[in-house]
């Protein structure tokens, strides 16, 4: 059973319980944040790097965290920003690659997974998500997998709820079309 | 998180085919990954106190300690080098074999000189150089400013003339020749002459190497007299 965020934050600010509180925060949020990052980056090693970086930032910045927002919203925002920065860095390193090459690269990584099965819908869904623009991909993942309310998502992504709803609807339709098309083939 | 039913209903309206797909992620990850991650992260963000601690004040005393060790090491190296290069010398005791009378150093008093040490005259070689410096400066100034010219009248006696703005270069060359022919004794005489046979101002200028001012302050008679002193006219005759 996890402690509530308020208790964890109080413990983190006390030097005698700081490490224990940090460990508890990591345990509480690690899986959700791991999958949030991995849906964006696909590769486990990349995900592990970004997850560790973001939790190091949490250690350094949590004392200054203002409790006017929820802890998990703040954590998602850091994870999202770190993931987007990582993707940007990759793009810069391979300057000759276009965006479609990056997307194609992520699709190829999915297909290279030892458990990949092109007949299973879960894998088709993952391939379909990679066809989306970055922002739509984020919105779809946060809503579809993390079941995040638009209000919270608005705080994570800094976008209005209306725009997020529209993005989600566009993304869902595109994914459905992609999956139906692949089933016809 | 938001009620699953709300999200499912929303999805059914927008993309019904998606609503039936399992939300479970198909990706695999290393076994025990989430069990180890919190400890791994703690190892990164928190310095390992037990393994990496240093005694209190360690860095404050470190420079002095290192300096002491470096000095000790240098002495040892020097001794080893001596032993390796000159083993016989190194084997000999450094104690002096000589003896001094008992209580010599205790009773020894440094002698105080009764008289002030005599002033040692300036050496001839310096005087020679100084003499040439005086001669060269006079020649240069005569050539440059040209307000005093020397000419020999052929009877062995020198004559000093005022010559307006014209420069009598032959006279200057003649002076240079005369000065270059002077031997050491005459040069000494020249120096002596400038020291004692001119007025106080000229003497001061010469001593401070201000030869331009010295020449200006010398009268024609003084220059003539000094040239006679250094043997110029005597030699010409």
Describe this structure in words.
The complex is a heterodimer of chains A (185) and B (237). Chain A has 185 residues and is mainly alpha-helical. The mean pLDDT of chain A is 90. Chain B is mainly alpha-helical. In chain B, α8 packs across α10. The radius of gyration of chain B is 49 Å and the shape is elongated. The chains are: A mainly alpha (185), B mainly alpha (237). At the A-B interface, α2, α3, α6 and α9 of A face α1, α2 and α3 of B.
What is the compact description of this entry?
Chain A is mainly α and 185 residues long.
Question: Which properties best describe this structure?
Answer:
heterodimer; A: 185 residues; mainly alpha; 9 helices; B: 237 residues; two-stranded antiparallel ribbon; 14 helices; 2 strands; elongated
Strands of chain A, count: 0
Low-pLDDT runs of chain B = 145-168
Low-confidence stretches of chain A: none
From N to C, what is the helix and strand string of chain A?
HHHHHHHHH
Into which percentage range does the β-strand content of chain A fall?
Answer: under 5%
Helix content of chain B: 55-70%
Q: Could you give the order of strands across the largest sheet of chain B? A: 1-2
Helical fraction of chain A:
over 70%
- Largest inter-chain contact set: A-B, 46 and 31 residues
User: What is the general shape of chain A?
Assistant: globular
SS elements, strand count of chain B: 2
Computed CA radius of gyration of chain A, to the nearest angstrom: 18 Å
- The helix/strand order of chain B is HHHHHHHHEEHHHHHH
What characterizes the major β-sheet of chain B? 2 strands, antiparallel
Q: Quaternary status of these chains?
A: heterodimer
């Amino acid at each position: 059973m996890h402690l509530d965020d308020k208790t964890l934050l109080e413990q983190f600010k006390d030097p005698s319980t700081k490490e224990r509180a940090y460990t508890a925060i990591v345990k509480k949020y690690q899986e959700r944040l791991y999958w949030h990052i991995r849906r964006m980056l696909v590769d486990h090693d990349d995900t592990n790097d970004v997850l560790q970086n973001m939790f190091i930032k949490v250690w350094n910045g949590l004392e200054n965290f203002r409790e006017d927002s929820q802890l998990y919203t703040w954590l998602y925002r850091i994870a999202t920003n770190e993931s987007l920065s990582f993707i940007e860095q990759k793009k810069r390193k391979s300057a000759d690659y276009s965006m479609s090459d990056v997307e194609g690269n992520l699709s190829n990584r999915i297909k290279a997974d030892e458990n990949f099965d092109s007949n299973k819908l879960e894998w088709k869904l993952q391939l379909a998500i990679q066809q989306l623009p970055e922002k739509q991909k984020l919105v779809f993942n946060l809503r579809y997998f993390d079941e995040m309310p638009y209000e919270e998502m608005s705080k994570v992504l800094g976008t209005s709820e209306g725009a997020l709803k529209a993005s989600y609807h566009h993304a869902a339709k595109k994914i459905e079309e992609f999956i139906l098309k692949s089933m016809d083939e | 998180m938001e009620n699953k039913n709300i999200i499912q209903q929303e999805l059914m309206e927008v993309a019904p085919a998606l609503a039936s797909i399992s939300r479970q992620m198909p990706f695999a990850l290393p076994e025990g990954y989430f069990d180890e991650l919190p400890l791994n992260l703690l190892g990164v963000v928190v310095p390992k106190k037990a393994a990496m601690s240093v005694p209190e004040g360690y860095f404050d005393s470190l420079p002095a300690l290192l300096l002491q060790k470096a000095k000790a090491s240098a002495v040892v190296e020097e001794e080893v080098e001596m032993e390796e290069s000159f083993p016989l010398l190194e084997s000999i005791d450094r104690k002096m074999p000589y003896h001094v009378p008992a209580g010599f150093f205790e009773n020894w008093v440094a002698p105080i000189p009764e008289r002030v040490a005599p002033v040692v005259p300036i050496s001839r070689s310096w005087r020679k150089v100084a003499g040439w410096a005086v001669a060269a400066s006079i020649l240069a100034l005569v050539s440059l400013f040209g307000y005093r010219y020397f000419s020999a009248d052929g009877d062995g006696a020198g004559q000093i003339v005022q010559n307006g703005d014209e420069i009598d270069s032959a006279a200057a060359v003649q002076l240079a020749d005369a000065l270059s022919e002077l031997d050491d004794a005459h040069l000494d005489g020249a120096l002596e002459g400038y020291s004692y046979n001119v007025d106080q101002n000229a003497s001061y200028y010469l001593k401070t190497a201000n030869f331009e001012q010295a020449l200006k302050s010398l009268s024609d008679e003084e220059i003539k007299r000094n040239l006679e002193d250094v043997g110029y006219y005597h030699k010409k005759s």
